[in-house]
Amino acid sequence: MPLANYSVLKGHVTDRKRATQxxxxxxxxxxxxxxxxxxxxxxxxxxxxxxxxKYFFSDNFSxxxxxxxxxxNLATGLTTVPNKPNGIALDxxxxxxxxxxxxxxxxxxxxxxxxDLNDKIDLYVKRALNNPDATxxxxxETWGPETQADQYFHFxxxxxxxxxxxxxxxxxxYVAQDGTWQDGGILIHFASTNRWVALFLAFxxxxxHTDDKGHTVSDQPGNPPSPVEADLHLIAAMVKPVSxxxxxxxxLNATPTDIDLTGYELVDKANRHxxxxxxxxxxxxxxxxxxxxxxxxxxDGGSISLLDPTGLKVSxxxxxxxxxxxxxxxxxx
Length: 333
Known about the structure:
Elements: E1 6-17, E2 25-31, E3 37-43, E4 53-58, H1 64-72, E5 77-80, E6 104-106, H2 117-128, E7 134-143, E8 160-162, E9 185-190, E10 195-203, E11 232-238, E12 248-253, E13 259-260, E14 265-268, E15 273-275, E16 279-280, E17 285-289, E18 301-307, E19 313-320, H3 321-324, E20 331-332
Parallel strand pairs: 3-8
Antiparallel strand pairs: 1-2, 1-5, 1-7, 2-3, 4-6, 4-10, 7-8, 7-9, 9-10, 11-12, 11-20, 12-17, 13-16, 14-15, 14-18, 18-19
């Protein structure tokens, strides 16, 4: 079954422990405004081969998600997060949080500086350590409170959050944990500069093509976009048209051959679908006018995905409220 207690933990970093070959989780100690302590357990090695975990980190993360988190004004501590779109739940496949093809595998710990997953995580966590300007948000599944003290930081009762990684597209025994809108991740907000750091992890055995249950629908685990998937690109959108004009999505055919769009669909951040049809000439751009009955582009930020007739995402983009700008101006991806 999907994660039972998908939540976000908000608080301040007061300690951390690097992962080791014997203990393959990077541990972060978090404290909320009431002084309650929690542990964040971050996988630094996979139990399924290949063992190296894939990562995508950004030290200047921009996405409508951060606007939603800011608007939610969450209390520190744990908050249950509904597994649904258009909220603050994470979904690496549907939300277009980042370009998953940019994820790279790294070993847990090797000699040298800034060349393993420990080093990459530590770089950002140390910036937040005992820093009143920094607030950490960890998304995953909760555990506790336990009767015993925490085994790493010795506070009592032990409690915290784990599964700080993609939680869909699994293999083997872990397929039972698949679900949509329940991916893990870490965001760190530095208030004085209003800068967000994002840390996203996935296992090489996982797939980025999943169905509405979070199960793999591709036979290539961890699959980056193939040349076929890169044939069509979402390149711009008219999110805020002038009065009387429709919202539009611009689709580029990058190939030397015509493509029949029959069976393709556009999907917005609320998981509304709109069917496409007809040919798109080689090298041409389709300026598709939305009907206003299905896919809707929010001025407050959103995402747009293009699915092929089998339901696989072939292109995905996201935009923020700040990018929308004045009426009649395109958002360019």
